[in-house]
Design brief:
231 residues; signal; 12 helices; single chain; mainly alpha; globular; Serine Threonine Protein Phosphatase 5, Tetratricopeptide repeat
């Protein structure tokens, strides 16, 4: 039998409905640059790089255009738009803060190796990379050590030992350092010394230790999938 609810119950139901409606409308209209930026990052972290690109393009010229510079450049590399990525990282090397410059240096090395088509083979590429490293200035010890790999110095073991000896403020910072090292070290194996097997073994060894919030994570997974797929 249907029972008419009391007035207080009706008010409660109406309040819930109105709150739900307001929340839906607010969510639909909440497209501030900060929200779009976070959505772009989430897209990149989950491998939806094309979707992320659309959002970064929307954010160009907004008040957070400088904040998106690094992830936007990484996104271009993820999409295989290497020339545009190189130009974006070149700007960061020139105009970024010290942290951004360090990171852009590493991408400069990776992109140079990934796209190298000059004559002279591996020896010429190695000379070019060595010259680049010699002209960089660093504020980060472990990123400088990663660059030394591209100059034909140091080793993955030495870099991971260095990272283990650094006191990071948060656990995530160390995981991020490990993730960066795996990505750029793997790039050296793949594109400088042409040792894809070494790259695959490195990726497999550390794939469960990567930082979930590092943009390189999905790129490592992509490289690992490519290398482990029978040709």
């Amino acid at each position: 039998m249907f029972i008419l609810p009391d007035k207080n119950s009706v008010r409660k139901v109406l309040s819930v409905l109105l709150f739900s409606l307001f929340t839906c409308v607010a969510t639909a209209n909440d497209k501030t640059p900060a929200v779009i930026f976070q959505q772009a990052i989430n897209d990149d972290l989950t491998g939806y790089h094309s979707d992320a690109r659309q959002k970064y393009d929307v954010l160009k010229g907004t008040e957070i255009s400088k904040d998106i510079a690094v992830p936007s450049a990484v996104n271009l590399a993820a999409l295989g738009r290497y020339g545009e990525a190189q130009r974006a990282f070149n700007l960061l090397q020139q105009d970024g803060n010290r942290r951004e410059q360090d990171y852009a240096h590493l991408w400069d090395l990776w992109l140079t190796a990934r796209t190298y088509q000059g004559g002279g083979g591996k020896a010429a590429l190695q000379r070019k990379l060595t010259d680049k490293v010699a002209n960089y200035k660093w504020s980060s010890a472990y990123e400088s050590a990663i660059a030394d790999i591209y100059a034909g110095k140091s080793s993955a073991k030495e870099i991971f030992q260095l990272i283990d000896g650094i006191t990071f403020n948060r656990v995530e910072e160390k995981a991020d350092a490990v993730t960066q090292t795996v990505f750029f070290m793997g790039g050296y194996y793949q594109y400088v010394i042409n040792q894809p097997q070494q790259a695959m073994e490195l990726y497999q060894r550390y794939v469960s230790h990567l930082n979930n919030d590092s943009l390189e994570r999905s790129l490592i997974q992509k490289e690992l999938l490519f290398l482990s797929t029978p040709k």
